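Entry — protein

Goal — fold tokens:
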Amino acid sequence: AIAPWNTPSYRHELEELLAIADHHDLPVDVPYSKLKKKHHDLIWNGDRKRRFGGLKGFFDWLDRKKYKMHVRVFASRYRTYFPCSDCGGKRFRPEALSYRLGSHSIADVLDASADQLTQLLESDEIPPLQRARAQEPLAQIQKRLQFLRDVGLGYLQLSRSSRTLSGGELQRVSLTTALGSTLVGMLYVLDEPTAGLHPHDVKGLVRSITELLDRGNTVVVVEHEETMIRQADSIVEFGPGAGEEGGSVLRHGSPEEVLADEDSITGQFLVGHRGVTLKNRERRQPRGQVKLKGASGNNLKGIDVEIPIGVMAVVTGVSGSGKSTLVQDTLYPAIARAKGESSMKPLPYKSISGVGTFQDVMLVDQSPISRSARSVPVTYVKAFDAIRKVFAAQPEAKIRNLQPGHFSFNSDRGACEQCEGSGRVEIDMQFLADITMTCPACNGKRFRDRVLEVRYRDHSIADVMAMSARQAIGFFADHDKVVDRLRRLTAVGLDYIKLGQAATTLSSGEGQRLKLAGFLAGSSKRRTLFIMDEPSTGLHFADIQRLIGCFDSLIDEGHSLLIVEHHPLLMTAADWIIDIGPGAAGDGGEVVATGTPEDLARQGEGLTSELFR
């Protein structure tokens, strides 16, 4: 009955339980549901005297190992969230719930969205006596709710867990703190605050930033979104390339000056001289469809959706309209289960058909690719094995009897003994937070001296790890296997990242594209449906143009793409668009328009269709 202990790796946990079963009179030949409460307690909480940790102890041990990818994947199969049986998910004691604002308890108030609570506070549901007694707190609440609505988050429930928010939503929640303050003379630095926002929602964010400026503050925004760039008072464009090819100020001026500069890449995209347009894009025809019927999770209103296969399909809509609920929480797990793959439970739906039109499904979301600094890009594209073989083939390596395994910082044979291949050491500060510093033994190079002394074209393995993908392609020009793997990084616009750069330092957009590069390096021949969540995050117009080329190559090879996206370039390049809305939260959850971008431009309804007109 204990599924995680039926695996070969953790069978010993079951054997430990069986060993103490007789002592606790635990019958092992009856269903779990028929065991006594004391037996359930033993299985869950263990027996400390006999050093048996039980299920809770087992999962606590897994938590200490969660820096390993396979452990996180394993643990996630057996964990889920469910409402508390005592309070029903309301979080409060009965005494606290007995007090009311009108007819609403504090749990009811927190379960409302910012928009809904604003309507409540402005309605006649609050008795005059209560309103008079709480006049000042109510005014402050309404003011803060307005901040949330101004940054496009009026659809969020006030009690919603922050772990369920996207990066862009978290950043905008933080922005409301700044808006709620009365500070002046401050410098605010925002890193892509439009992440996750539909172009229509950006207008509210611009108004909020303008409020900060009107108070006498300064706002610096790192951004690629067209509306934000056009609304800026001053633009600083960096380049000309990425990584080592960047780092220079190309131009500094007003939006008008940048748009008029023919040498400005940003300006050329904004004026329409470069990029994808409705006129220069040919639409592909689908080779089948996946039909999802009766999707009703969260705010979805029992909708039926047809996903074309063999093309690039884009799901769009305003923030909070139900896109992620439809694609990531319903469609993907439903397809994965239909394919017999282990997956989370999908949100409610009636039926799904057409999953036989492709062989595999792959979710490429913005979750961190690794929590370990040992995970590096060169391993994701499967180029590290070939590189190690190159060094192991050198005369100096053969003299020292060094095998390919010696050229790995994850191997005891090649890793620095002091930092164990991490390149950094942690110092215990006892009563202060621990600090990390560069390993003094290897100076951050991760390898032992005898390994670093082996050279290929006068470079050590550590020198190669410090190269960008672009540099490494030229360096290994004579080794087709290495070059072929590294070109996958170039294909997804990551040719500027270092081969040995820790995956924990990559942005969510970079991590997402690295996952895609890893699949490309695998050279799978099985037709796959890729489900992607805003791959344009953090990308300039020119980078998106290159990414579209990568997507086209995938489709030409027989794969399919379903992308949740807001960027106009990717929407214009789509073969098919599914627009969810028309609004957010309760005002969304419906299919507003479907068709090619040309179809939406001619007769589509909703805010997305307006972008094409």
Remarks:
- The first strand starts at residue 187 and ends at 191.
- The chain has 27 helices and 15 strands.
- Residues 135-150 form the longest helix (16 residues).
